[in-house]
Amino acid sequence: MKSAFWALILMGSGITAFAQRNCATDAYYRTHRSQYAEMPVERDGVEARDTVPNEIIIIPVVVHVLFHNEAQMLSDAQVRSQIDALNRDFRRMNDDAASTPEVFRSRAADTRIMFCLAQVDPAGRPTKGIVRRYTDREYFLGDDGMKFSASGGNDAWDTRKYLNIWVCSMLGRSLGYASFPGGPADKDGVVINYDVFGTIGNLREPFTMGRTATHEVAHWLGLKHIWGDETCGSDDVGDTPRQLSYNYYCPSFPHTTQCSQESSGDMFMNYMDFTNDACMNMFTHGQKKKMRGLFAPGAWRNSFLRSYVCDSSLASGAPIPDDTLVAAKPAGNVKAYPNPVTDFCVLEPDGDYKLEGQILRLYNATGILIRQVVLTSGKYTLPMRGLTPGTYFIKLGEHANKRVIRILKL
User: Fold this and answer.
1) Mean per-residue pLDDT for 205-229?
2) What is the pLDDT of residues 306-329, one digit of tens each?
3) Crossing angle for the helix pair 25-32 and 2-10, nearest 10 degrees?
């Protein structure tokens, strides 16, 4: 099984602009199936409750942004755009809902599941639900390395209370993958490639509407691919038509095959197919029932009904800084020379301070940001040629890592 998994992950490596959707969830599950428990257990030690009829289920989310360079350091606005896209798609409030073929519209469902960025972290402090961490990994494989600090990623927050989403650079054609319910708690969550996450920013066509996350989060909620990952297979949902296999791009409707049991053919606009973002627009009532069933008493996601970390009023202690940047706490300082400077200023660690992963910001004397860069080496040459003579300030890092250096430009 491992060979099949790595074949999917590595297939087309280096061709990051390849315009076909690929999801590694099924291969991931087949490889790690032995780690999945057979039956749900009450993992949080609290009394289970059931949903009331038609209750809106709200799932708190923490997004771990793992960046190796500035392009991968997604803004808060881009992260929020993805949460907004999830809410539109799962509530059937998406603008393209009207594109669902008429024959399938009666099957299209508002799942009454919503998502919020967590407002309380596991220590009870305020948070924006976004954690950024510099990684020395240029890319991650589908081996869960991004889920552990020890391997260049970031450890999961309590998976009984938070949907953990890791956003990083992934090798090959896979846009992401998810853990199905029942896997190891420290690996539970969703992984998305940084250039298909959200609806704004530097995104890869044609995956610009946030639907990679919609697809993967639905896997996290127990849905299979619509073709059941077998030829003419079943996804164990009664109102999704059987189809031969996956569909790419955006087929013309109707698209029928020898497996079609209806003249309407494939439901290729379902979020669980492999079509382009602009071609996806629906979940079915059967898929809604299957996902919501995970929140029943004794089921895998029931603990989320007692997760109140979307309520900022429950946070206590000192507020954490806006950027929630995770980094090692270095000792030592930074040398900057020559100073005064004419053309270039060299920054070099003095003691145990590490430049790698720090954000460098250059400000003029009035506090205007002139330049910003994520440092990726142990020594950096800052160009200052062409700047107006005067006083400048170099700010390195945040929190315990923060260093400020005054520079005179001649």
Assistant:
1) 97
2) 999 999 888 876 555 454 555 444
3) 150
Name the residue ranges covered by the structural domains of the chain. Answer: 2-314, 328-409
For the chain, what is the HEC assignment? CHHHHHHHHHCCCCCCCCCCCCECHHHHHHHHHHHCCCCCCCCCCCCCCCCCCCCCEEEEEEEEEEECCHHHCCCHHHHHHHHHHHHHHHCCCCHHHHHCCHHHHCCECCCCEEEEECCECCCCCECCCEEEEECCCCCECCCCHHHCHHHCCCCCCCCCCCEEEEEECECCCCCEEECCCCCCHHHCCEEEEHHHCCCCCCCCCCCCCCHHHHHHHHHHCCCCCCCCCCCCCCCCCCCCCCCCCCCCCCCCCCECCCCCCCCCECCCCECCCCCCHHHCCECEHHHHHHHHHHHCCCCCCHHHHHCCCCCHHHCCCCCCCCCCEECCCCCCEEEEECCCECCEEEEEEECCCCCCCCEEEEEECCCCEEEEEECCCCCEEEECCCCCCEEEEEEECCHHHCEEEEEEEC
User: pLDDT tens, 256-304?
Assistant: 999 999 999 999 999 999 999 999 999 999 999 999 999 999 899 999 9
Task: State pLDDT tens for residues 99-124.
Answer: 999 999 999 999 999 999 999 999 89
Residue 55 a catalytic site member = no
The CA distance from 200 to 130, in Å, is 17
Q: Which CATH architecture has domain 2-314?
A: 3-Layer(aba) Sandwich (3.40)
The string of pLDDT tens digits covering residues 227-250 is: 999 999 999 999 999 999 999 999
- pLDDT over 80 at 332, yes or no: no
Catalytic-labelled residue, pool 216, 230, 262, 348: 216
Please state, as a whole number, how many other Cβ atoms lie within 10 Å of the Cβ of residue 90.
26
pLDDT in tens, 345-389: 999 998 888 898 889 999 887 778 899 999 999 999 999 999 999
Q: What is the CATH number of domain 328-409?
A: 2.60.40.3080
